[in-house]
Design brief:
The chain is globular and about 45 Å long. With 267 residues, the chain is an alpha/beta fold. The strands form two sheets. Strands 2-1-3-8-6-7 form a six-stranded mixed β-sheet, covered by helices on one side. 44% of the residues lie in helices and 16% in strands.
Length: 267
């Protein structure tokens, strides 16, 4: 009986002293946990690209702008204010242009945006949708005279539906991209060639992600889209009215990766 009491006493004493003894042990587990918690979170869209600014050696210079900066995506506007719309003051194509700028900078491509405020005002002054190209022309021309850009992209959202603007690769959906080239100027082949190279690089990453290169000219179309201002100015249709934010973000990561590839091989 006495031995039993002694055993229970020792056991109770051990339970009492155990938490105290833990304080004297190395706290490697706690430290590791602390390091994990403090590790900054990174947003991954696709292709292991993070939405954060980093400093790298320049791989080229790019300019992004939006002739029709109000163009929006129905799922995005619905998520924002519960209303389906193809035009929005804030949840529009410029939001995704900002993300493309960030991702290009991550890849080492120095990227600028033509000020959105200017374009918003220009669109208000334009009496017709097509007139926006003429309204923005002088602003684009001034900018490309100031900086020697390797690539200039006018980013749009196409008006077609989801059945034509979704590419599925390895069970993941992406927003499809089309390139529009105006052929009513003498040097349009240079613009077409730049679009072709970007298209091919994107297809290497995600087969089926592009809808091709669309050549435009003739009556009732602009025919130039200001591409006569720079041999590497292309018009990009990023998705359509029914693409989701996730699909657009994935495609933006692919565009950034493909753009970097063609700028690294400029010849």
């Amino acid at each position: 009986m006495k031995q039993t009491l002694q055993k229970w006493s020792l056991f109770i004493l051990f339970l009492f002293l155990f938490p105290i003894l833990l304080n004297f042990l190395p706290n490697s587990g706690t430290t590791a946990q602390s390091k994990i918690i403090k590790e900054p979170l990174k947003i991954v869209y696709a292709s292991n690209v993070f939405e954060e600014e980093v400093t790298q050696d320049s791989k080229g210079k790019a300019l992004l702008y939006f002739t029709h900066n109000h163009e929006a995506f129905e799922p995005v506007t619905k998520e924002k204010d519960g209303k389906v719309s193809v035009s929005h003051q804030t949840e529009n194509i410029t939001k995704f242009g900002e993300r493309l700028r960030t991702q290009l900078n991550v890849h080492g491509v120095e990227t600028e945006l033509l000020p959105v405020d200017n374009m918003a005002e220009l669109n208000k002054k334009s009496q017709k949708y097509e007139m926006a190209y003429g309204s923005i022309r002088s602003h684009v021309e001034k900018k490309i005279q100031e900086v020697d850009y390797d690539l200039v992209i006018d980013i749009h959202r196409d008006s077609i539906g989801r059945d034509k603007t979704v590419a599925t690769f390895e069970a993941v959906d992406y927003a499809k991209v089309a390139f529009v080239i105006g052929k009513e100027h003498a040097n349009y082949k240079h613009n077409e060639e730049k679009a072709r190279r970007l298209k091919e690089e994107m297809e290497k990453i995600v087969p089926g992600i592009t809808r091709g290169i669309i050549l435009k000219g003739g009556p009732r179309v602009d025919g130039k889209y200001n591409q006569d201002l720079h041999p590497s100015l292309i018009l990009m249709e990023l998705g359509g009215v029914e693409n989701t934010e996730e699909e657009l973000n994935r495609t933006i990561a692919v565009i950034a990766e493909a753009t970097t590839a063609i700028l690294l091989n400029k010849n």
